[in-house]
Amino acid sequence: MKKYILCLGVALSGAALTSCESFLDVNTDPNNPITSSPNFLLPGIISQGIQQQMFTSLTTAYITQYAVRKTPASSTDQFVLTNGNSTNTFNYAYFYSAGNVPTMIEAAEKAKAPYYIGAGKIITAMDLAHATDMLGDIPYSEAFKGAENYTPKYDPQEQIYATVQTLLDEGIALMRTPAAENLLPLYISSPSISGDILYRGDTDKWIRFANALKARQLNHLSKKAAYNPQQILQLVSASFRNAADDAQLQYQVAVAPLSGTTNIYGVTRANFGAATFSNNIVRYLNGSVTGAAFPGVTDPRLPIMLAGSSNGADPGVGIPATSNLINNVADFYNGWYARDLGIFEVITFHELKFIEAEAAFKAGEKGRALTAYKAGIRAHMTKIGVGGTFANPNVTFPTITPAQIDAYLASAAVAQTEAELTLKHIMEQKYIAMFLNPESWSDLRRYDFDPAIYPNLKYPVGAPNGLGGQWPRRMLPGATEVMYNPQAVAALGASAPDYITKPLWWDMP
Known about the structure:
single chain; two-stranded antiparallel ribbon; 18 helices; lipoprotein; signal; SusD-like_2; TPR-like_helical_dom_sf; SusD/RagB family nutrient-binding outer membrane lipoprotein
């Protein structure tokens, strides 16, 4: 503001205006740039887009009953949702990740860097896909316009789904641009890392990532007449080849000025100190507990995912706050997924194998479905079964040997023949392998929380009467939208007591 005030008195003179512009150029603070090159914008776009999903998982981990609260608190594991639960799901897309893509694209066009434009479109598609899958209708056609429009309308989810596919197709085409036509390296490591922090400049992996996202989104349409399993299978074949292609980011030690770089599930961030694992997930892995999904079969992932001695609890029932402690901290913090310096997975090879299994099963290709289903189990076990000792808290995880994997795949927990294989087999193993990932909520909704597929889910004690015994199918609009875009939010009907139980567009025939 001071810059404009300094010029106000002389703005009537052309010569004076030129002088003022020169003065402002001299007084631009080089330590606070107002523009940046694409390679310095892309890391934040990627990391904040992934952080969008991290924050969502703080809510969905309870809805999907991977975790429950020890002390009932009229909260997420009892299906009591607030606008605050959704704020980061919305804000990290619109303000921190996709919201910065137009600026990066403008800079990339000037720099003749089409790979950056492609990455921007793919990440925007990822952000929008996640936001719409959690929230329903969201802005796009009037969004990302800055001061031109602070109150964009909400577009129908069907339209957002089409936009996501278009953005991914455009991103793929840009990533296929000949390298000679891209004048700014997609990944720069010296003098400091910038650019593509996800795949380090590997455009082929970006293309596979985009195809993986396309397959996931189209598989969400399983209730629609337009569902096309063959199209999904083609996309799966063009997506991840193995776990080295997984879209994920490594947590790191926070070194000033960085903060919040450790695991969202970890002990340092302290989001799950009052939580424990649900009986639902315990029964899938521990073949010796009452109600075990696979009696007599102890999953070798148990001591890795659930810290070995976790007892579990049901949502809304309540257990002593001092129970289920390991190393004097919540048992949750002792699991592989809660390592302070672990990873956050966006979409993985093992998820793609389960998508393949489901689509192949529905296409009548039972042999391919059985092979993909077993490959998904093997890939997940291999990934988390590498062992190692990790600090804070101090936990040593066992390895899972090839012999253990083979034994589990030959056990009663796994379908052995095409004739035996059912959707229940596929979806319950996918549920285990997708531990804590918000995408599991999409699967639960697609299959209507069906006890024939997910037999150990428990409707929580203390859930609001206004929900009528229904399960949540959407989050509420973010709190910032309620404050600053109230007319668009009101048009959604989000004030209804049962709003969160209303199916999304893709969740209906």
